[in-house]
Amino acid sequence: MAAILEGTARALLRRVAIEQAEARLPSLVATVLRDGEPVWFGARGTTEDGAAPTADTQYRIGSITKSLVAVLVMRLRDEGLLELNDPLSRHMPATPVGEVTIAQLLSHTGGLTAEPPGQWWERVPGVEIDALTQALDERTSRHRPGRRFHYSNLGFALLGELVARHRKADWADVVRAEILEPLGMRDTTTRPRVPHARGYAVHPWADVLLPEPEHDAVSMAPAGQLWSTCADLATWARFLARGDQRVLSPATLAEMREPAGVDDADMWSVGFGLGIQLLRHRGRRLAGHGGSMPGFLAVVWGDPADGGGVLCMANATSGLRPSVATDLLDILEAHEPAIPRAWAPTPADPDLLQLTGPWYWGPTAFLLRLLPGRDLMLSPVSGQGRTSRFAAQPDGSWLGLEGYYAGESLRVVRRADGSVGHLDLNTFIFTRVPYDPSAPIPGGVEESGWH
Q1: Distance between CA atoms of 233 and 343, rounded to whole angstroms?
Q2: Are strands 59-60 and 420-425 parallel, antiparallel or unpaired?
Q3: Among 109, 86, 107, CA closest to 98
Q4: What does UniProt give as the signal peptide span (predicted)?
Q5: Residue 446, Cα to own-chain centre: how many angstroms?
């Protein structure tokens, strides 16, 4: 683990100690990452054997499990075994909610009920998938698919079964083979192993504990079954921020981090992508997930912008404040601000270099910059308007990656002599001078010109 200053470590530990004491948590563990690597681990309280928890002590991570299941679904998509717009019925016939698409299940926009029918599933032994699907009826759909964000544990039970049917193996075995083993997360399991924390409820008006039950959720397990450690969850935070080609392509992981639904529509501070929770905090766009099960609370965040990350786990049914995670990120940044990497020149293709500089869409000035490699950045000179990065494509065009131009093509159109004439961005014509009369401006240019 990389070293941080003693004063920084003390400030981080103080924040964890305050949370453990004020929230009355039997134990609390946390890890902070910088540039993809853990730089600090802290713990307060004790587990049931009276020992202080370590980075290898297991806690139940609840719904963080969903983010791993979502990665498996995206792997199936990348292999061509399904499309995100496929209705569930195409892969799981006779399912009562088969009209909901896979993308809607991943983003919690399918309109399904939050919980499965029957008793509170988190505190009782689970049922097999056939029993679960047979219990679904017209009450399972609470909203029109696609209408709004509505968190659904049931939806991820169905996605877990989707994975199992395609792989012809239990979802947990697929998680282990396709995610945990490649990433080296050997201490993430479906049931607890020693050493692990015991889950408790803390009495609201007295300092006493009540042990919480723990069962195999069976068909509901993909919604929150996994247990993990600080060491393993730090690896997951790094994956969420930086990715790993052995598990998922960078483009697919970036797709998962795109907002698909908003949990707090008035503020848009918390949203969801495809199986990944999103949080906007002081200029950061964090990707991760929270988790809760009876006796346990957890949260993990990774920052794709700088490789930072944080995670917290506690063995209590309630009490852990979500702000503790972002507070730890803020403390590290306040005490030890990251030092930017030194700028260094990089080789540039001369043909691309001549594309850089001012371009005009009508009378509006834009700047085209060359990024490392062959990618481009187009942004308005005024700072107000449509900005997008463009990734170089094998056919010599560029593909928009974000904002208004996401998915749109940018092409360089040359004159008969081979010189650059204009840029064509999905029918928008960009020229070197405003409304260049020599370019094919849609609608033409007034012959009298500017006056």
Answers
A1: 32
A2: unpaired
A3: 86
A4: none
A5: 50
Q: What is the dihedral of CA 72, 316, 304, 80, to 10 degrees?
A: 10
Query: At which residue do the structure tokens 């001012």 appear?
Result: 358
Closest CA to 390 of 363, 371, 415: 371
Q: Are strands 398-400 and 428-431 parallel, antiparallel or unpaired?
A: unpaired
CATH class of 6-335: alpha beta
Instruction: Please count the residues of the chain.
Output: 451
- Render each residue's pLDDT in the chain as its tens digit; 451 residues: 668 999 999 999 999 999 999 999 999 999 999 999 999 999 999 987 788 999 999 999 999 999 999 999 999 999 999 999 999 999 999 888 889 999 999 999 988 888 898 889 989 999 999 998 888 877 777 888 888 889 999 999 999 999 999 999 999 999 999 999 999 999 999 999 999 999 999 999 999 999 999 999 999 999 999 999 999 999 999 999 999 999 999 989 999 999 887 766 666 788 899 999 999 999 999 999 999 999 999 999 999 999 999 999 999 999 999 999 999 999 999 999 988 889 999 889 999 999 999 999 999 999 999 998 899 999 999 988 899 999 999 999 999 988 899 899 999 999 999 999 999 999 999 999 999 999 999 999 988 888 8
- Number of Cβ within a 10 Å radius of residue 247: 19
Nearest 5°: phi and psi at 430?
-110, 130
Which CATH code of 2.30.30, 3.40.1620, 2.40.128, 1.10.287 fits the domain covering 350-431? 2.40.128
d(CA 360, CA 308): 38
For the chain, the structural domain boundaries read 6-335, 350-431
Taking alpha carbons only, the member of 323, 241, 233, 236 closest to residue 287 is 241
AA letter at 239: F
Our CA angle for 64, 68, 70, nearest 5°, is: 110
Give the global pTM: 0.90
